[in-house]
Amino acid sequence: MSTSRSVTPSRRGILAAGGAVGIGALLAACGKGKGSGSANGGAQGGPWSFTDDRRKKVSLKNTPQRIVAFTGTAAALHDFGIDDRIVGVFGPTRLQNGKPDPQAGDLDIRKVTIIGNAYNQFNVEKYASLNPDLLVTNMYEPGALWFVPDDSKGKITPLAESVALTSARVPLLKIIERYAALAKSLGADLKAEKVTDAKARFEKASAALRKAARSNPVKVLACSGSPGLFYASNPGINADLMYYKSLGVDLIVPDHLDKGGYFESLSWENADKYKADVLLLDNRTATLQPKDLAAKPSWAKLPAVKAGQITPWSSEPRFSYAGAAPLIESLARAIEGAEKTT
């Protein structure tokens, strides 16, 4: 379940008054910069093309040198070796204490321009000033660019070509392979030790999870908490859950899904509808964590909570071998050490 897919935090204005005029001037400047053939404008690398998951073939005269991406997307590309060409990010990037958001992975957020740090934040003027060659993001719903606000999409998309990769309804491994293909097209060396080591760790973790699920078949519920609702997530649509289920994890399937199919919304009075031995709890900054949930009597009564069998769930995983391997290892350990509670 992904609450930011369905719960819109307080909306903030993207442009100050008169911002549209500034965007027009920047757009004109961007056009001049890209035609100049400067190294920063994408003059290196020769012709480039990539067909994304909208079945849209994106073609450029030169391999993109200035990439702006959703934070988790940028982090995944970084894991495959695309680094210095990522000049800007949007989405959860920096926590209130100044540290990187978990979605930033190993990306050095000091080296990129943050053009939005939360849902519906996207500074169009700042984006235009980066003179981008390419925008890359996830796509949880067909045709929808993740974290690109609908109300300013018309100003954003003309500034650079975009690539969108499916992030749901397809198993995790397939999405990672698509990210690898995109990174390779951009010039990443998929045979680099960093990448091959991460892939080996991913495969080892997957084997460990398969073994744990077989030897200790406990029931697992992927879930998320908000002040008013408890969400039971659907392993038939979330990419990571689909993959875990394919490895044999006994993930509970909610029987009354909300529109969109990602989860079932339950009142806290009904949070015990599904009997789980292990709770895989959404750990994103926008969701409630165990310390926040402790005051809810219905949470405290859940068998998995009483048994202390709660493990973090990165419900928007980083789609790379390096990003996914630790998540799989964590779930394998949780299942190995869990006891039946129901």
Provide a descriptive summary of the structure in words.
- The chain has 342 residues and is an alpha/beta fold.
- 33% of the residues lie in helices and 17% in strands.
- A hairpin with a 5-residue loop joins strand 1 and strand 2 (57-60).
- Helix 7 runs parallel beside helix 12 (321-337).
What's the short story on this structure?
The protein is 33% helix and 17% strand.
Radius of gyration from CA coordinates? 21 Å
Helix/strand order:
HHEEEHEEHEHEHHEEHEEEHHHEH
Total strand count, please?
Answer: 13
- Give me the secondary-structure category: alpha/beta
Q: What is the general shape?
A: globular
In percent terms, what proportion of residues is strand? 15-25%
Work out the helix count: 12
Helix content: 25-40%
Mean pLDDT: 87
**Low-confidence runs:** 1-43
Biggest β-sheet strands, sense, barrel: 6 strands, mixed
End-to-end gap = 23 Å
What are the key terms here?
342 residues; alpha/beta; 6-stranded mixed β-sheet; 5-stranded parallel β-sheet; 12 helices; globular; disordered N terminus
How would you summarize the topology of this molecule?
Blueprint: H1 3-6, H2 19-35, E1 48-51, E2 57-60, E3 67-70, H3 71-79, E4 86-90, E5 113-114, H4 124-129, E6 134-139, H5 153-156, E7 161-166, H6 172-185, H7 193-215, E8 219-225, E9 229-233, H8 239-246, E10 250-251, E11 263-267, E12 278-282, H9 290-293, H10 297-300, H11 303-306, E13 310-313, H12 321-337
Parallel strand pairs: 3-4, 3-6, 4-5, 6-7, 8-10, 8-12, 12-13
Antiparallel strand pairs: 1-2, 8-9, 9-11
Helix pairs in contact: 7-12
